[in-house]
Amino acid sequence: MEIALIKLLLAHILGDFFLQPNSWVTEKERIKLKSAKLYLHVALHVALVFILFFSLEVWKQALIIGVTHYAIDAAKLLFQKTKTKRIWFFADQALHIAVIVACWLGFYDGTTIDLGFAQNPKVWLYIFGGLLLTSPTAIIIKVLINRFIPSKGTISLQNAGKFIGILERLLIYIFVLTNHLEAVGFLLAAKSIFRFGDLKEGSELKLTEYVLIGTLLSFGIAVAVSLGITFINS
């Protein structure tokens, strides 16, 4: 895969998932286009393009990404409803990625400045794959299984499930890249043992199904991304 496309995608997931606090999202949804965080968020995406390419020659891509990012996010804020948040989330991400691909196809001429290992596309692809399996995947899984959350609350550490999922996906990523697929089975078995007591004591079918859906989604996405990265780099 072309290194420029990987850098553009990397800039996107950094700006949308890692460098955008929940407080920004809350403020944008509350006061919409009047939120200063919306404009700061767009400016951050533009800055990330320049930082990752380490060149001012990508100003066209940065400008297009900034303008379209604002337009897409503004439309999402203005038109999404509580019931359509899931649809708007995926539509929003699909449009951003489409713009990124268009920028790459239409403008990139290979004149960026890179140093040392940064010249190797595989390095950027490994970084992209690893980051994709952390917060972005956690948010995607949350959006997908939000409707299945049991009505009765359970006691657990704040954000514990999110971080457990991130750690397990990163471990699967490492296992697949290092050709230790058998370790994935051990990881799944270990998690099942730890979760068995909670599910048995809870004795709730809904909770059991919710945990199984989340676990299988997490493992499935991690394996798919890992195998995809391995195939591309082969």
From TrEMBL:
- UniProt KW keywords: Membrane, Transmembrane, Transmembrane helix
Mind telling me which residue stretches traverse the membrane in this protein? 38-56, 62-79, 86-108, 123-149, 170-190, 210-232
Q: Which InterPro entries match?
A: Phage_phiKZ_Orf197
Q: Please name one Pfam family that this protein belongs to.
A: DUF3307
Q: What is this protein called?
A: DUF3307 domain-containing protein
Question: What is the protein's species of origin?
Answer: Pedobacter helvus
